[in-house]
Design brief:
Elements: H1 3-28, H2 34-60, H3 66-107, H4 117-134, E1 138-145, H5 148-155, H6 157-174, E2 180-185, E3 188-194, H7 198-213, E4 217-218, E5 224-225, E6 229-235, H8 241-257, E7 263-265
Parallel strand pairs: 6-7
Antiparallel strand pairs: 1-3, 1-6, 2-3, 4-5
Helix pairs in contact: 1-2, 1-3, 5-6, 6-7
Length: about 270
């Protein structure tokens, strides 16, 4: 085998290593991401190079030209470059994914998968600023499970955790993609609903209430546990996130006082 053939074979090996690295990067990225599509096409380009290198080995045959060795050397360097780029990209992508996970963990409730209370203040302030700037409505819905202590006392905290996950799933299934679901604490949740006035938010709250009450949770002992929730609704009045949240909380407790498993809309200030 001539020197040029050896260089091409080594180049094919480097490109194969680069292709494996691209495969590792694809495994880190979500199926629908644009970045993943770009890496997929880059993998196709690298595979095409590998085919081209193999074709050169066949076409050059027994020729042993200095020009061939120069071209082979350049192609070898191309393989080195491709491998270096993909290795560096793998390191960068791994760091980005790790950092994104740390950031997500900092604002995610580990039990339900919703956002946690730490995220509430920043998100609510952001939505208030946007609503104020664009002069669009903004509402919050506060949700509290009825008699949740009884569930824990009767069935235990493991079942209580299942109930919280189940209810959060029902809430998420009822809201719009633009809404934000936050576990406020214990058995209490908050939904931030941009673009909703009192009437829209009340309709959203009623959909959540009905979804929760109409979805039984199957327990390991064969029981079907039905839980209900009370909900308070408040809309932005004077640019104050705190006042809106406080009004939703007061409306929630009014719903509880009036019999639970219902919604209450805060009166306009």
């Amino acid at each position: 085998m001539y020197v040029d053939d050896v260089l091409l074979v080594v180049g094919i090996g480097l490109l194969a290593a680069a292709l494996l690295t691209v495969r590792s990067i694809l495994g880190l990225l979500t199926q629908s991401s644009a970045l993943r599509r770009y890496w997929f096409w880059l993998g196709g380009v690298i595979a095409t190079f590998m085919v081209g290198y193999g074709a050169l080995i066949v076409l050059w045959g027994e020729q042993s030209l200095v020009a061939n060795e120069l071209v082979a050397l350049m192609l070898l360097l191309g393989g080195v470059f491709a491998l270096a780029v993909t290795k560096l990209s793998l390191m960068t992508t791994t760091d980005i994914v790790r950092i994104a996970k740390l950031e997500r963990d900092a604002i995610e409730d580990p039990l339900t998968g919703s956002y946690n209370r730490r995220y509430l203040e920043s998100k609510l302030d952001e939505e208030v600023r946007r609503a104020t700037r664009l002069k669009t409505p903004l509402s919050t819905v506060m949700i509290d499970l009825d008699h949740f202590k009884h569930v824990n006392d009767t069935y235990g905290h493991d079942v209580g955790d299942k109930v919280l996950r189940h209810v959060c799933a029902m809430i998420m299934a009822s809201v719009r993609s633009s809404d934000t679901v936050i576990r406020y604490g214990g058995e209490e949740f908050v939904v931030i609903a941009p673009g909703c006035d009192d009437a829209d938010a009340a309709s959203l709250a009623e959909a959540m209430r009905a979804k929760i009450a109409g979805s039984a949770l199957n327990l390991p002992n064969g029981d079907n546990l039905v839980v209900t929730a009370s909900l308070g609704v408040s809309s932005l009045r004077a640019g104050s996130a705190e006042a809106m949240l406080r009004a939703a909380d007061e409306a929630l407790y009014a719903a509880k006082r009036d019999g639970r498993n219902q919604i209450c809309v805060a009166a306009a200030a």
